[in-house]
Design brief:
The structure is a single chain. The chain is mostly helical. It has one domain. The chain is built from 4 helices and no strands. Helix 1 packs antiparallel against helix 3. The radius of gyration is 23 Å and the shape is rod-shaped.
Length: 103
Protein backbone atom coordinates (compact mmCIF):
# COMPACT_ATOMS: atom_id res chain seq x y z
CA UNK A 1 0.00 0.00 0.00
CA UNK A 2 1.48 3.38 -0.95
CA UNK A 3 2.39 5.72 1.88
CA UNK A 4 0.05 8.44 0.56
CA UNK A 5 -2.92 6.13 1.05
CA UNK A 6 -1.78 5.27 4.56
CA UNK A 7 -1.46 8.99 5.36
CA UNK A 8 -4.98 9.61 4.09
CA UNK A 9 -6.37 6.66 6.05
CA UNK A 10 -4.75 7.91 9.26
CA UNK A 11 -5.81 11.53 8.71
CA UNK A 12 -9.39 10.87 7.67
CA UNK A 13 -9.80 7.92 10.03
CA UNK A 14 -8.83 9.82 13.16
CA UNK A 15 -10.70 12.98 12.17
CA UNK A 16 -13.75 10.92 11.14
CA UNK A 17 -13.75 9.04 14.43
CA UNK A 18 -13.51 12.28 16.41
CA UNK A 19 -16.36 13.83 14.39
CA UNK A 20 -18.48 10.71 14.89
CA UNK A 21 -17.88 10.73 18.65
CA UNK A 22 -18.61 14.47 18.77
CA UNK A 23 -21.90 13.86 17.00
CA UNK A 24 -22.87 11.12 19.47
CA UNK A 25 -21.94 13.31 22.44
CA UNK A 26 -23.85 16.27 21.05
CA UNK A 27 -26.94 14.14 20.37
CA UNK A 28 -26.88 12.65 23.87
CA UNK A 29 -26.35 16.09 25.42
CA UNK A 30 -29.33 17.55 23.54
CA UNK A 31 -31.44 14.56 24.56
CA UNK A 32 -30.45 15.03 28.20
CA UNK A 33 -31.20 18.77 28.10
CA UNK A 34 -34.65 18.14 26.64
CA UNK A 35 -35.27 15.42 29.21
CA UNK A 36 -34.21 17.66 32.10
CA UNK A 37 -36.49 20.45 30.89
CA UNK A 38 -39.53 18.17 30.90
CA UNK A 39 -38.88 16.17 34.04
CA UNK A 40 -41.55 16.21 36.72
CA UNK A 41 -40.33 15.07 40.10
CA UNK A 42 -43.87 14.34 41.24
CA UNK A 43 -44.17 11.55 38.62
CA UNK A 44 -41.63 9.43 40.48
CA UNK A 45 -42.68 7.29 43.42
CA UNK A 46 -39.18 6.78 44.82
CA UNK A 47 -35.83 8.51 44.75
CA UNK A 48 -33.94 5.63 43.09
CA UNK A 49 -36.07 5.72 39.92
CA UNK A 50 -35.51 9.47 39.64
CA UNK A 51 -31.75 9.09 40.10
CA UNK A 52 -31.60 6.36 37.46
CA UNK A 53 -33.46 8.48 34.91
CA UNK A 54 -31.38 11.55 35.65
CA UNK A 55 -28.05 9.76 35.29
CA UNK A 56 -29.01 7.82 32.15
CA UNK A 57 -26.44 8.22 29.29
CA UNK A 58 -24.16 10.44 31.37
CA UNK A 59 -21.44 7.75 31.63
CA UNK A 60 -21.39 7.50 27.82
CA UNK A 61 -20.91 11.25 27.47
CA UNK A 62 -18.18 11.20 30.12
CA UNK A 63 -16.37 8.25 28.52
CA UNK A 64 -16.33 9.86 25.09
CA UNK A 65 -15.22 13.18 26.53
CA UNK A 66 -12.41 11.67 28.54
CA UNK A 67 -11.11 9.48 25.71
CA UNK A 68 -11.23 12.03 22.87
CA UNK A 69 -7.80 13.53 23.72
CA UNK A 70 -6.26 10.07 23.54
CA UNK A 71 -7.71 9.51 20.08
CA UNK A 72 -6.15 12.81 18.99
CA UNK A 73 -2.87 11.72 20.52
CA UNK A 74 -3.09 8.43 18.63
CA UNK A 75 -3.41 10.40 15.38
CA UNK A 76 -0.33 12.43 16.29
CA UNK A 77 1.72 9.33 17.09
CA UNK A 78 0.68 7.62 13.85
CA UNK A 79 1.58 10.75 11.87
CA UNK A 80 5.03 10.85 13.51
CA UNK A 81 5.57 7.16 12.68
CA UNK A 82 4.61 7.82 9.05
CA UNK A 83 6.95 10.84 8.95
CA UNK A 84 9.87 8.76 10.23
CA UNK A 85 9.06 6.08 7.67
CA UNK A 86 9.13 8.66 4.86
CA UNK A 87 12.41 10.10 6.12
CA UNK A 88 13.93 6.61 6.32
CA UNK A 89 12.60 5.67 2.90
CA UNK A 90 13.95 8.82 1.23
CA UNK A 91 17.15 9.24 3.23
CA UNK A 92 19.32 9.60 0.12
CA UNK A 93 17.22 12.38 -1.40
CA UNK A 94 16.26 14.40 1.69
CA UNK A 95 18.06 17.65 2.30
CA UNK A 96 18.24 18.31 6.08
CA UNK A 97 18.23 22.06 5.43
CA UNK A 98 14.78 21.80 3.85
CA UNK A 99 13.42 19.95 6.86
CA UNK A 100 14.76 22.59 9.25
CA UNK A 101 13.32 25.41 7.13
CA UNK A 102 9.85 23.85 7.27
CA UNK A 103 9.71 24.05 11.06
Amino acid sequence: MPIEQIKDIVDYGVIGLLIFLSFITFAFAIERILFYRGIKVTDYSNKTALELDISKRLPTIASIGSNAPYIGLLGTVLAIIITFYIIGDQQDTINPGEIMNLC
